């Protein structure tokens, strides 16, 4: 798979101290109002839910790195003004769901991802469906690698999982695999139709 949460933002280490939840929420709310954006407008521009943005502004949730990145772009805030907060949360008993076909789509030249349960922030696991469009490893410029571990279940079609230290692994519907994400990897469909998989990433 390709990394879903980009890490091209400035490293957290560049920041001396992150604001607490109240300060972060006020910072985002003030910036949104300065731009004359409603909650709905800002949330839509950042591709997050209105309720998620409201919770962030009111310090009722801790946003993930990806949501921080989107808000930075939407509100034209610089890295020193917004920081990734700890993925640990004091909130318990959380729940999120995604209705069939209503996940958040992210498409690349080789994969078409549908992110699931995106309203729930600070998740330790990242679940999503993917359609494998690639048909040959030459379509990948380089190995895909990122931190964490991954579980993959082939839902339909057939594919080959290429990994850096192992022989190519042919897989078909019902097959599963678990591997280190830091090991170079990529998938290509080998069936007439694009293979569909469920991926669960743990960072």
TrEMBL record:
InterPro entries with a match to the protein in the record: Cro/C1-type_HTH, Cupin_2, Lambda_DNA-bd_dom_sf, RmlC-like_jellyroll, RmlC_Cupin_sf, TransReg_Diox_bact_type
Coiled coil: none
The HTH cro/C1-type domain, residue ranges: 28-82
UniProt entry keywords in alphabetical sequence: DNA-binding, Plasmid
Gene3D superfamilies with a match to the protein in the record: Jelly Rolls, lambda repressor-like DNA-binding domains
Pfam families per UniProt: Cupin_2, HTH_3
Region Disordered, annotated ranges: 1-25
Keyword NADP in annotation: no
Name the UniProt record assigns to this protein: HTH-type transcriptional regulator
């Amino acid at each position: 798979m390709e990394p879903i949460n980009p890490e091209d933002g400035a490293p957290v280490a560049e920041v001396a101290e992150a604001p607490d939840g109240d300060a972060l929420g006020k910072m985002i709310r003030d910036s949104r109002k300065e731009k004359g954006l409603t909650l709905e407008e800002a949330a839509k521009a950042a591709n997050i839910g209105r309720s998620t943005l409201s919770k962030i502004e009111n310090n009722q949730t801790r946003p993930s790195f990806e949501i921080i990145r989107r808000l930075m772009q939407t509100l034209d805030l610089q890295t020193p003004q917004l920081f990734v907060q700890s993925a640990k949360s004091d909130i318990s008993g959380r729940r999120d769901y995604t209705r069939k076909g209503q996940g958040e789509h992210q498409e690349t030249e080789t994969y078409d991802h549908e992110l699931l349960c995106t309203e729930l922030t600070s998740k330790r696991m990242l679940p999503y469906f993917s359609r494998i469009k690639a048909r040959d490893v030459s379509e990948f410029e380089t190995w895909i690698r990122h931190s964490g571990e991954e579980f993959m279940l082939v839902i339909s079609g057939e594919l080959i999982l290429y990994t850096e230290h192992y022989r190519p692994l042919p897989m078909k519907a019902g097959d599963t695999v678990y591997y280190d994400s830091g090991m170079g990897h990529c998938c290509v469909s080998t069936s007439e139709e694009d293979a569909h998989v469920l991926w669960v990433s743990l960072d």
